Amino acid sequence: MKRIFLILVLLSICQLNAWPKVDRKTFIADTLKVALPVDSCLGAGQSGLRFSDQRDYPADLVLIRQIDKWGYIPVDQYVVLNQPLTQTLERYASRDSIRHRGSLTLHHLFIWRDTKPALKKGNQLNAYTVLLDSMDRPIGDRIWELTRKPAKKQKYGDQMSQLLDDWFRAQVGAVKDYRYHSDLYPYRFRRQLIPWSDLIVLPDGYAVIAHLSLDYPADQMSAYTRGSAGIYYRKSSRLESIAIGGQDQQWYYRLNRRLLGRVNPSLRIGFNNFNRRYFNHLDIWNLLMVNLTLITSVEYRPVYSKGPWLGMGLFQNIIILPDVIPRYEPGLAITLGWILP
Predict the structure, then answer these.
(1) Which of 32, 112, 155, 187 could form a Cys-Cys staple with 341, CB 3.0–4.6 A?
(2) What is the fold, at CATH topology level, of the domain defined by 192-339?
(3) Could you read off the pLDDT of 175-204 as tens digits, one per residue?
(4) For the domain 20-176, what is the CATH code?
(5) What is the pTM of this model?
């Protein structure tokens, strides 16, 4: 055991000495280099665009994730490029011959795995960049959100190569076509904490669906998908039902700068409690609550807003269990929420 411990210590020292720029609080570190298609390009065009990296990370670092080394030891893995990120952007800009005379500043870059959207799980990249003119005056900004689903048994390095290549190409393309927003994002770019609830008015009773989401802002996107589990409570004269979790999917569509449309299908499994005045005998499976719900609503959520917001729409419940009440249950949905940027 002492020999094994000494070997682990020596390995950790070697790893840490090989990475002098990062915080050395980890016991053992691991490094994964990501190769990009532009690395193999021999020639390059010309570009007048300069790049600046304002992140508090080493220049070639794109993310830090946790892996199990040797199958059981949790360690930090540093995912890095073959050269600094700004030089990588310069090569993409030169390959596409970007003529813009100014600079592009990268303020934030986050890569993580989003498993909440049932139909859009994958590696997600969120970033924030600002385009400046030749006098370093802001022209506009862009909030980035890209998702790529990895192929089956695809190595993580190849996953990152494809995702980063998508973003680098989209980034220089946005500069080339001047697809930048003139109104700068007014808050610190980070995940927004949004508690919100749907209050459902039913023909017999009411229901409440409470959510708590933590996602990056999507104010500049015309359409996006989110997923969040919720707490569902329904009360009527005949029974009450409760479910925690479930597959809640929210599909959002920006209608204009003030209004946001939402289509929200959900599958829930929970439990029922019956009023014995209405039921003398019940089969045991009716204690389970299984339903499909759909909410379509319009929400007043102006671009770059914070604080309270509200919405209104229609609710439709398809009840699979219990089978002793009507299967279809329409209602009116009133949505109340709060944005904490």
Answers:
(1) 187
(2) Porin (2.40.160)
(3) 988 889 888 999 999 999 999 999 999 999
(4) 3.30.160
(5) 0.86
